[in-house]
Amino acid sequence: MVATSPYAWQADVDTTVVVPALSLLYLFAVGRLGAPRWRIGCWAGAMGMLAVAFWTPLHHLGLHYLLTAHLLQNVILAEWAPLLAVLGISAPMAATLARAAPWRAASHPALALPIWLANYFAWHVPVIYDAALDGQAAWLIHVEHACYFATGVIVWWPLLQDVPRRLPSGARAAYAFAAFVLASPLGLLLALLPRPIYPFYEHVSTRVWGLGPLADQEIAGVTMASEQAIVLFAIFVFWFRRFLAEEA
To answer: Is the separation of the CB atoms in 160 and 87 below 8 Å?
Structure first.
């Protein structure tokens, strides 16, 4: 049932169950393996990001009214929260994860980036996107959220962790640049299309902020492309500068 206000605050199962579970698991890992305070702070920041994505009106707006809100939520799930989560994992924790063969395979740069990109593009195919929102398969939206976060952790791993393999700074710079170049077209495509491609948002009952479906789609695309340009290009610059310093 849709709440009466587009700005409703609602507790979602993704945070009422998943965030506490991840937090308890992390506290258990800290108790056994330890972690510096700054890493604990990063993990707390990741959980805070998830709370913002699901407890604030952003979730309700994206689920029922605005493509822009939903894409911003996806950015939090696929990029910002996973980035902080990976930074929150201490070296002993990372070494423990690296013992698992599936994790070693999935976190390999040659697989991590394609998996993340495939997930990002697949969930934006109109028929899949609308199916996750129309309520006929309520479980699908939770699968979408889990896929975004899991693949986000995988894609950041080679850039921010040193196990199971330590990439040279130049390789990390190239990896970040590839992510920037390959991910950006999705947002740009949404911004430049001449008509709306998501029927779900064409038939919403209330037009929030007076935005029609095409204007909403254009803003959503620009928002996504701009965010990825800023974050991924900034990380590329960081590693490229380090590469130049090491080569000097």
So the answer is: yes
What's the pTM value of the predicted model, to 2 decimals?
Answer: 0.94
Name the nearest CA neighbour of 42 among 176, 169, 153, 168.
153
Q: Read off the tokens for 42.
A: 């990063």
Q: Which residues contact 189 (CB under 8 A, 6 or more apart)?
A: 221
CB 149 within 8 A of CB 81: yes
Rounded CA-CA distance 176/238 in Å is 10
Residue 4 token pair: 């009466």
Tell me the pLDDT tens digit for each residue of 133-176.
887 777 899 999 999 999 999 999 999 999 998 999 999 999 99
Residue 184, classed as helix, strand or coil, is helix
Q: Report d(CA 123, CA 8) in Å as an integer.
A: 25
Whether residue 92 is preceded by a cis peptide bond, meaning omega within 30 degrees of 0, is no
The token duo for 172 is: 């990390």
The count of C-alpha atoms lying within 13 angstroms of the C-alpha of 77, restricted to the half-sphere facing its C-beta, is 29
Q: How far is CA 100 from the centre of its chain?
A: 23
